[in-house]
From TrEMBL:
PANTHER family: CELL DIVISION PROTEIN FTSA-RELATED (PTHR32432), ETHANOLAMINE UTILIZATION PROTEIN EUTJ (PTHR32432:SF3). Gene3D superfamilies: 3.30.1490.300, 3.30.420.40. It comes from the Bacteria. Pfam families: PilM_2. SUPFAM superfamilies: Actin-like ATPase domain. CDD domains: ASKHA_NBD_PilM. This is SHS2 domain-containing protein. It comes from Candidatus Kuenenbacteria bacterium CG08_land_8_20_14_0_20_37_23.
Length: 364
């Protein structure tokens, strides 16, 4: 749905395979938030299988939240596994922008426009060319998310690919955004630290329950994404369950208690987690090679940023740093929010990264 004047209040709604999260932000302050754990099979690989139970879960978040949600307008996250992001450059023409993009897009991507929904963000413009980041999602998937949100009493305003929301949440809009990049180029102070901040590519690792997303960005702009279904929090839990002969519920508890510590659980859990991190490090190296060969950018100064619920796993930063020889840091999903952020609140809201980014869409 399109509004002549977009609503001033909107909540971010993040639907994933095992949980739903909602966040409302007003004037860069957290107003309300809540989450609900989904049983397996309600949502699978981003596809909604049980509309009634998904809608009921959304309603429960909105009604049971300790802090009241005051809007029914929602920005929805669309699953990374079903979406596609592409940077395109088109002629600077006069006319309806949506129609121009639809006309130019098939020249860049082999896509049937009758079967997809599009979202776009203008990145750069000059006298002759305009550059856009295009998000493409199958129409069936988009319609399912619209349907379930309306069943829950919400009115969807925007549908957005998950990677866009994550970047908006954790990249400081005062220093890292694409809109500020060009201002930085003309700074008088050309110290090396500023140059690295501007030019260095970054890989965002969203470590989720059922998959991990790798997002390559440079100049604050998404270049491409990779979704890994074989590396996730659930993958680690299954490994612990199989090797230690435990139920999945028991294995999840052990994972939280022992974590990545070599001293706890005789190091058994750490060994399982380390195998997963080693596979992840190889995926990162392959991503860097692809970016260097296909995009022509140097990856020597690549920074890796961890977010998502799995980022709270102790020791993962140190292991990745050793395996990739890259600077690793934990994301701060509250960086663009004026609430006082400390280590405890950052850890608490790390699983809300996507929902926060969605809620910030109209604010930054």
């Amino acid at each position: 749905m399109y509004f002549i004047t977009p609503p001033t209040k909107m909540l971010g709604l993040d639907i994933s395979d095992l949980s739903i999260k909602a966040v409302q932000i007003e004037k860069t302050k957290l107003k309300a938030w809540g989450d609900y754990s989904l049983p397996r099979g309600i949502v699978e690989e981003g596809m909604i299988k049980d509309f009634e139970r998904t809608a009921e879960a959304i309603k429960k978040i909105l009604t049971d939240s300790k802090r009241k949600f005051t809007t029914n307008y929602a920005v929805l996250s669309l699953p990374e596994t079903k979406s596609f992001i592409k940077m395109i450059e088109i002629p600077n023409k006069k006319g309806n922008l949506g129609e121009i993009i639809k006309y130019e897009l098939p020249k860049h991507v082999p896509v049937d426009l009758d079967e997809v929904e599009l979202d776009w963000q203008e990145i750069k413009s000059n006298g002759r060319k305009r550059k856009f980041l295009i998000g493409i999602i199958p129409e069936e998937v988009a319609n399912d998310y619209i349907k379930v949100s309306r069943m829950a009493g919400l009115e969807p305003v925007v549908l957005e690919i998950e990677a866009q929301s994550i970047v908006r949440s954790i990249m400081d809009c005062k220093t890292d955004s694409s809109t500020n990049f060009f201002k930085k180029l003309f700074l008088k102070d050309k110290k090396e630290i500023v140059k690295k901040e501007i030019h260095g590519p970054k890989i965002i690792l969203d470590l989720g329950a059922t998959r991990t997303s790798l997002i390559m960005i440079e100049y604050g702009i998404i270049q491409f994404t990779v979704s890994l279904s074989d590396i996730s929090g659930e993958d680690i839990t299954k490994g612990i369950s199989e090797k230690m002969n435990l139920t999945l519920k028991e294995a999840e508890k052990i994972k939280i208690i022992c974590g990545n510590s070599p001293k706890k659980c005789k190091g058994c859990v750490r060994n399982i987690i380390k195998e997963c991190i080693e596979r992840l490090a190889e995926k990162i190296k392959n991503m860097e090679k692809f970016y260097e060969s296909h995009f022509g950018s140097s990856v020597r100064e690549t920074e890796i940023i961890l977010c998502g619920g799995g980022a709270n796993l102790a020791g993962i930063s140190n292991d990745l740093k050793k395996l990739t020889n890259r600077n690793i840091r934990l994301a701060n999903p509250l960086v663009n929010i004026s609430n006082n952020a400390n280590d405890e609140s950052i850890k608490k809201f790390m699983p809300y990264t996507t929902a926060i980014g969605l809620a910030l869409r109209r604010i930054i």
